C-alpha cells in the first residue's frame, strides 16, 4: 500500500480477486475458481496490498540479490519479485526458470525508426520461446494449489506451447484448442512434444476462445488464457524486471504487440503497481500495435477519445470485433480480444496509443530486427513497425527513450522468415471489394541463399561477389 514515495507500509496480506469493472468491483477469495465476475460478467483482477518488506530501496536490493541465489524461486525472473505476487510463502511453485530476459540496445532498429536509441526487451528468450512463460508459471502454480486435474487454453500457438510445458512440469493433464492450419509448425511441435492433448478446430482463434470459456464451466478444467488473473500477475513482473534493467529510470515509451490484449493489460498493471508503491515516479506511455487485418482495438482508438476511459465504465459494444481476422503474424490473428477493456484503461491512463501496421511494415521491421543479430517472430516485429510510424507522426520524439517488447523467438515461425528471404511471402490481399488475390510482399531486406557448384573456386567467386 502506498504511503509516500519510498516507504511501503507493513500490512497483512489481504489480496483478493476483484471485478475489474469499476461500477461493479465485486470481490472474491483468491481460491475461488473463477474467470469472470459472477455478478456482472466482467474480467477479474487481483487487488489488495502488496506484502511489505520495508523501503523501496530494500525491495530493489532484495529483488536484485536473489539473482545470485541458487534457489529455484530466486532464479526465476518472476518469483524473485514475489512480493508483488498473490501467493503464500510456501506455494508449490512450478517454474522453468522463466524471465530474466535480455534488454538489447538496437542501433539498426533505432536508425530505421529515426530514433537516437531504441532498446528491445526480448521475451522470446524465455524457456519455451515466448513471453507466455512469465504468466504460465503463476497460472499453473495456482492450478496446483486449487487441485485442478486438467489445464486448458485456446491459442494461436505460444500460449499452447507454454501451457504444455508448465502443465508437464506440474503433472497436470493439458488440453489445447487451436485453429486448424493456423498455428506455426514450431509451436505445434512444442505442444506435441510436451505431451499436450492438441485439439484442432475448424474455425479461428476467437471460436477456440469461445469454446474454451464454455468448457471451463466444468469443475475439473482450469482455464489459463490471459483472462485468468493469475496469468496476468506473473506477466506484470516484466514491468519490474524491465525497470531494474533501466536502473529504475522510467523509459518514455514501452511498445507491445496486441492480440488478445492480456500482455498490455499485465504490463500496465505492473507499472501502475510500481508507481503506487513508490518505486517509480511516473508511468511510461504504453502503446499497443496491431496488424491491420486484425486490428479492432486500433480501430476503436482511432474513432474515440479514449482519455475518458481511464477509470469510468466502458460500453460492451464500443469494440467492434473483426469477424475474419487476417495477418501473416499468426500469433496476433485475433478479431475479438478478450482483455480489451483492461488494456484500454491502462493505455489511456499512461497516455499511450493504439495503432495498426501493414503486413509489409511488419515484414520489413522483422528483417531489420534480424539484422541486429536478435530476430523475433512476426507478431513481435509489429512493435518496431509501430514505433517507426509513431516517430513519423511526431508522437514519439527522436530523443525519447523507447523500449519495444519482443514477445516471441525468431525460430517460432521459420516458414515466414524463409519465405521472406526467398522472396515468396504471399498474403491474401482483400483490399479490393472483398475479392481476395494472392500478393507477394516486397522483400526489401531479403537475404536469399545461393546455389553454387561444389568447388572451392565457385564458392570463393560467390563470396567475392558479395563483398
Ligand atoms: N506476440 C506473440 C508472439 C504472441 O504469441 C501473442 C499472443 C501476442 C504477441 C499478443 O499478446 O494476446 O497478450 O495481446 N498469443 C496468444 C497465444 C494469443 O495463444 O499464443 P496478447
The amount of helix comes to 25-40%
Structural class by SSE content:
alpha/beta
- The CATH topology of the domain at 103-128 and 229-413 corresponds to Rossmann fold
Amount of beta strand: 15-25%
Shape: globular
Bound molecules: ligand F0G
The chain-level mean pLDDT equals 93
Features:
467 residues; alpha/beta; Rossmann fold; six-stranded mixed beta sheet; four-stranded parallel beta sheet; globular; disordered N terminus; binds ligand F0G
Task: Give a verbal description of the structure.
The structure is a single chain. The chain has 467 residues and is an alpha/beta fold. The longest helix is centred in the middle third of the chain and has 17 residues, at 229-245. 50% of the residues are buried. Helix 6 (185-193) links the parallel strand 9 (173-179) and strand 10. The protein starts with 6 loop residues before the first strand and ends with a helix. The chain contains 15 helices and 17 strands. The strands form five sheets. It has a six-stranded mixed beta sheet with strand order 6-7-15-12-13-14, with helices on both faces. Strands 10-9-8-11 form a four-stranded parallel beta sheet. The protein has a three-stranded antiparallel beta sheet with strand order 3-2-4, with helices on one face. Among the domains are: 1-49, no CATH class; 103-128 and 229-413, Rossmann fold, CATH 3.40.50.1100. The chain has helices at 56-65, 72-75, 107-113, 132-146, 158-169, 185-193, 205-215, 229-245, 262-276, 296-303, 340-350, 359-371, 378-392, 414-421, 456-465; strands at 7-8, 16-19, 27-28, 44-47, 54-55, 103-105, 118-122, 150-154, 173-179, 197-201, 221-223, 253-257, 285-291, 354-357, 402-406, 426-429, 437-440. Bound molecules: ligand F0G. Ligand F0G binds next to helix 5, helix 9 and helix 13. Residues 130, 155-159, 226, 257-263, 331-332, 377, 379-380, 407-408 line the site of ligand F0G.
Amino acid at each position: 500500500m502506498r504511503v509516500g514515495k519510498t516507504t511501503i507500509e507493513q500490512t497483512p496480506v489481504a489480496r483478493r480477486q476483484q471485478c475489474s469493472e469499476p461500477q461493479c468491483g465485486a470481490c472474491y477469495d483468491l481460491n475461488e475458481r473463477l474467470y469472470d465476475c459472477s455478478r456482472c460478467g466482467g474480467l477479474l483482477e487481483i487487488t489488495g496490498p502488496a506484502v511489505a518488506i520495508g523501503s523501496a530501496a530494500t525491495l530493489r536490493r532484495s529483488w536484485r540479490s536473489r539473482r545470485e541465489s541458487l534457489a529455484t524461486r530466486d532464479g526465476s525472473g518472476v518469483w524473485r519479485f514475489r512480493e508483488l505476487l498473490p501467493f503464500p510463502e510456501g506455494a508449490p511453485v512450478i517454474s522453468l526458470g522463466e524471465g530474466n530476459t535480455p534488454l538489447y540496445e538496437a542501433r539498426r532498429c533505432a536508425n530505421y525508426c529515426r530514433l537516437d536509441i531504441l532498446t528491445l526487451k526480448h521475451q522470446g528468450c524465455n524457456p519455451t520461446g515466448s513471453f507466455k512463460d512469465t504468466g504460465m508459471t503463476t497460472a499453473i502454480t495456482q492450478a496446483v494449489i486449487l487441485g485442478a486435474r486438467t489445464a486448458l487454453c485456446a491459442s494461436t500457438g505460444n500460449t499452447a506451447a507454454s501451457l504444455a510445458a508448465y502443465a508437464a512440469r506440474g503433472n497436470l493433464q493439458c488440453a489445447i484448442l487451436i485453429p486448424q492450419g493456423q498455428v506455426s509448425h514450431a509451436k505445434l511441435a512444442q505442444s506435441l512434444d510436451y505431451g499436450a492433448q492438441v485439439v484442432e478446430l475448424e474455425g479461428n482463434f476467437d471460436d477456440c476462445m469461445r469454446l474454451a470459456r464454455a468448457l471451463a464451466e466444468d469443475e475439473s478444467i482450469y482455464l489459463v488464457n490471459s483472462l485468468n488473473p493469475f496469468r496476468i500477475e506473473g506477466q506484470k513482473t516484466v514491468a519490474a524486471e524491465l525497470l531494474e534493467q533501466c536502473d529504475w529510470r522510467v523509459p518514455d515509451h514501452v511498445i507491445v504487440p496486441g492480440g488478445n490484449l492480456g500482455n498490455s493489460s499485465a504490463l500496465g498493471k505492473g507499472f501502475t503497481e510500481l508507481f503506487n508503491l513508490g518505486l517509480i515516479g511516473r508511468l511510461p506511455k504504453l502503446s499497443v500495435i496491431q496488424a491491420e487485418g486484425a486490428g479492432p482495438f486500433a480501430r476503436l482508438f482511432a474513432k474515440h477519445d479514449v482519455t475518458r476511459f481511464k477509470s469510468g465504465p466502458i460500453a460492451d459494444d464500443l469494440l467492434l470485433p473483426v469477424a475474419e481476422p487476417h495477418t501473416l503474424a499468426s500469433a496476433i490473428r485475433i478479431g475479438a480480444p478478450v482483455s480489451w477493456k483492461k488494456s484500454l484503461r491502462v493505455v489511456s491512463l499512461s497516455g499511450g496509443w493504439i495503432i495498426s501496421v501493414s503486413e509489409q511494415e511488419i515484414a520489413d521491421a522483422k528483417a531489420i530486427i534480424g539484422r541486429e543479430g536478435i530476430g523475433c517472430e512476426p507478431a513481435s516485429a509489429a512493435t518496431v513497425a509501430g514505433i517507426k510510424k509513431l516517430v513519423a507522426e511526431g508522437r514519439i520524439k527522436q530523443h525519447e527513450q523507447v523500449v519495444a517488447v519482443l514477445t516471441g523467438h525468431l525460430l517460432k515461425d521459420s516458414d515466414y522468415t524463409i519465405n521472406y528471404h526467398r522472396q515468396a511471402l504471399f498474403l491474401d490481399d482483400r483490399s479490393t471489394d472483398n475479392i481476395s488475390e494472392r500478393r507477394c510482399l516486397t522483400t526489401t531486406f531479403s537475404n536469399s541463399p545461393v546455389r553454387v557448384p561444389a568447388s572451392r573456386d565457385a564458392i570463393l567467386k560467390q563470396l567475392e561477389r558479395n563483398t
